[in-house]
Design goal:
The structure is a homodimer. Chain A is an alpha/beta fold. Helices cover about 30% and strands about 20% of the residues of chain A. At the A-B interface, helix 4 of A face helix 4 of B.
Chain lengths: ~180, ~180
């Protein structure tokens, strides 16, 4: 199986880093092929802005989704975004590993989601049989792939339980 | 009332920008004092990393929360982070305005939460009466302040409703 491992932790020598190394080793030993997106090591650009689009005219009003759609269709996305899309299309399974910060993903990983999941590719994908209809979850370019999260937290299990003060982890991770 | 308006949209001439301008005007007309954190205009640093701490030794292992705690206690936080904390302490009410991107806040705003809500100030705040106990929600440095979200979406109301394909907006915005 082809596995993409997305890693969003600032320290390689952390528990997260060790888990990642052990996980990749185990997958490779079992004969799987693994590629990695180590977002901090890549200095991933987190902020979605006009700089993502080569055709942004100075002073022009930015509509991010429209520019994203145009860049994807026209093949003018930035190489970092196009590279991650290529990895996602290559993969049969995608693992996303991060520490839970303020009930969600670290900003660098949110910026990977914001920028890589481009219009025309991950959303605003039209149904070939009915161009007026957008494809929904389970129908788009990533259909059939497996996904898995590896999440570490600094809170106790109880505080993230069904009646925990921080909220139930299952609610926090939805969707 | 003193109001801090946090704005996380890349385009001033957007619907969001207009709503923000109208809102601030209305508040000021009603006699309230308003300060703003326009994250894109400020080129807010989204990614929480070792660069946030002056005392990070080259090659030293980074434990973000521990460094955050030390920097807050020692007064060595970066000026951008300390400045936002000062605004939050000044405010009676905090408005946070953003477009819903992938079920959550844009990365730049997540990075504001990750970095500004520092250890020792927003979490890991000990109870003066019992130093072994951490203060929880409603007990910390921001207690008594009002909060409000202004969220725009590109989806229909139905798709974000109780049985909507994108999930119920109330679940998405929890917490």
């Amino acid at each position: 199986m082809k596995v993409l491992w997305v890693f969003a932790h600032p320290e390689q020598r952390s528990l997260n880093g060790s888990l990642r190394d052990a996980g990749i080793r185990a997958l490779e030993t079992a004969g799987h092929e693994v590629r990695q997106s180590d977002l901090y090591a890549m200095s991933w650009k987190a902020v979605a802005d006009g700089g993502d689009f080569a055709d942004t005219e100075p002073g022009a009003r930015l509509t991010y989704a429209a520019s994203s759609f145009r860049a994807f269709k026209g093949g003018t996305q930035t190489p970092d975004v196009a590279g991650e899309q290529e990895k996602l299309m290559w993969a049969d399974a995608v693992l996303i590993q991060f520490p839970l910060w303020w009930f969600s993903v670290p900003a660098i990983l949110k910026g990977w989601l914001d920028r890589v999941l481009a219009a025309g590719w991950a959303y605003r994908v039209t149904d070939p049989a009915n161009p007026k209809r957008s494809l929904r979850y389970g129908e788009g370019n990533l259909r059939g792939r497996r996904g898995m999260l590896i999440v570490t937290t600094g809170a106790t299990a109880a505080s993230l339980g069904p009646r925990g003060v921080a909220g139930d982890i299952d609610d926090l991770l939805f969707p």
